[in-house]
């Protein structure tokens, strides 16, 4: 397997404040990789740097292409779908329009209708609500919509920022099941950032731990889950 | 790499730290000294222009309190300016009140008018509030022309206001002070008074409440700030100060007429605020200078294209200083700080 | 009763002017989230360009089409040159930019074509429409064009991918970038379209109010008012708002004693504020439902 995403010496800044201090990691094609870490460790910043939504230095390579000087929208067009924190729902538009927007940069317009139907199969609740204003959906429904919208791009890589945030545990289970299915069946590589370490480690095959802007640990999900320190700090047992 | 603004809805006005709303003591003293000394060496006409400059500075400052501190936006300040001007003029010419005493009355009348206007405006925000205040500005000259009030307002003709003399006590002390000079210093005194009061208002509990509303209305109300009260209060205070400026303006120009207070005046005051730096009180002085002097400069450069020249100057200013004169002051401050270190 | 119907008809005729301008206002608002105070002046300038082309002997529809293209490109150029660099500046700075643009266009037009009023032809003629003395064929044509424009805009925003992308870019710029929309060009496109629609409004209005640099001042205010009454997010609302404002203005002038031409505008604006106080999103604007 070759690495799909290479991140080297990534440093990011919020104004004068440095949030990432030379982060390095990679993601294999087809894998589901997770970045773990406490609040403020730099997880979200890492995802935002990949999509060039924040000032950063270092090198980020996706399928052999450098992303450093590309605009957010052209990075997305390479096949990287980003589900941001807060879900980025187009609140004033309908559920269906949200899905169409997910596919807005695609050239193969004919297949979009079928893909929308596929999303409704993954997430039946979205079909029930397809004419409803997206802002009126519940938190869990909005998160499903956000994932579905990202998939409408037919991405090669999907970046997920705290998908479990603010959701009831049962809904989180469902959502993660679907993510696993998408990863296996649709061959979408996934990089997921999570505070809910236990759940993320069950799902992922590879994991990194971030502390104050640096990678402090890496390994397969099992290795990380069995690590003493991780267990104490992140899993709580 | 590029930066991207946060998704959350940014407030219309960039937050200004409380301290940064005023100038340091040294800078204040230098400016004050210049304001006192300059008129002693220039011609009467220039003194008159400087008087108008201070008057507009008061009006811009009033708008700054409304927009900069409470985050509301008004294109209708000319209406309150007109109300203040007419209040002073009518009191002086019909009732015979001393000019200085008309100013507090003008301020009070406008405070009440602004407070009342602020009540329905509470339900409006952003563009809608701009349109509502704009309507007020458009309506005001027409209302002043109404036949019903003609006995008091003089209708379309307006009213002539007597220019006050310097107090006799100055003459008895052997000082020869011209009317223009006296009016200038009188205006300067009023300006300083209003400036100090405004700075203190913004530092007070009420000022903090207003700024909390500007930054996040929901959070402010959750903290127990009476949002409606402070928003209307901000309108009232702003209108009251504008009214005092209007009264002074009437005295300085010696004339009030409906067409002197059109929407163009409101737009000019708005531009003054932007050029000076929204929410930065000393910027009012810079903004007012822009209103008073730039149209003259534009006229001077090209008669036929004065509008275009004005527009181009305005664009250059907002390109170089999108945050107005405040930005310049910060730059200077940074520079001085660096020089001191060396 | 006949007086009433007549006044309503006349109101609809003037309302068409406001409706047309309001459409341009809504268009730019959709794209950039601001009201462009220079919109009227841009429309006026476009109309002068059309007039100039006709003076050079180009037939009406040729000049019309060329003016549309000129305005579309001009709108994009203005955005790229003036407002793109200001993208990160505070909102109030933008408003100052609009005012500067207003002053520049007005002054340049005045110098180029002077301030004397000029006749501008109507493609529909000015004979009575269907025998009615109150509504001319030009006014009827104007209502027709407004409705066609409205339908086209509706289709554009609702059913085309570019329209959807423009709406997305305007309402949630960051999310729009994350689905691959080039938001910066969407804004430029919005400016171009607004300028083109404005130029149509200008060319339709000019035969009624006569062509001169200050011709759009009053019209733009009513256009804003109409757009705001209708709800700034709704092209249909803007058109209905335009007709409502036109009819209301006429009825007030007819039935309320002592209301001359001078007081018409303040009263129309007072009505608008009343509407807004009761319905802050306008009559047809979509209330944004949000979970907090």
Q: What topology emerges from the helices and strands here?
A:
The complex is a heterotrimer of chains A (237), B (342) and C (292).
Chain A: E1 3-14, E2 17-28, E3 32-36, H1 43-50, E4 56-62, E5 65-66, H2 72-77, E6 80-83, H3 95-102, H4 112-122, H5 124-128, H6 139-151, E7 157-161, H7 169-185, E8 189-194, H8 197-203, E9 206-211, E10 214-220, H9 221-226, H10 228-235
Parallel strand pairs in A: 3-8, 3-9, 6-7, 7-8
Antiparallel strand pairs in A: 1-2, 1-4, 4-5, 9-10
Chain B: H1 25-37, H2 44-70, H3 77-95, H4 99-121, H5 127-145, H6 150-153, E1 159-160, H7 168-172, H8 179-203, H9 205-215, H10 217-222, H11 227-253, E2 255-256, H12 263-276, H13 283-301, H14 306-320, H15 325-341
Antiparallel strand pairs in B: 1-2
Chain C: H1 2-32, H2 39-55, H3 60-83, H4 91-113, E1 128-129, E2 132-136, H5 137-159, H6 161-171, H7 173-178, H8 183-209, H9 217-230, H10 235-255, H11 261-278
Antiparallel strand pairs in C: 1-2
Largest sheet of chain C: 2 strands, antiparallel
Average pLDDT metric of chain C: 85
Record field, number of beta strands of chain C: 2
Major beta-sheet overview of chain B: 2 strands, antiparallel
Strand numbers in spatial order across the main sheet of chain B = 1-2
What is the number of E strands of chain B?
A: 2
Share of β-strand residues of chain C: under 5%
Terminal Cα separation of chain B, in Å?
Answer: 33 Å
Give the fraction of residues assigned to helices of chain C. over 70%
Order of SSEs of chain B: HHHHHHEHHHHHEHHHH
| Beta-strand proportion of chain B | under 5%
Gyration radius of chain C (Cα, Å) is: 19 Å
What overall geometry of chain C do the principal axes of the alpha carbons give?
globular
Q: Which structural category fits the helices and strands of chain C?
A: mainly alpha
Instruction: Classify the helix fraction of chain B into a percent range.
Output: over 70%
The helix/strand class of chain B is mainly alpha
The 3D shape of chain B can be described as globular
| Spatial order of the strands forming the largest sheet of chain C | 1-2
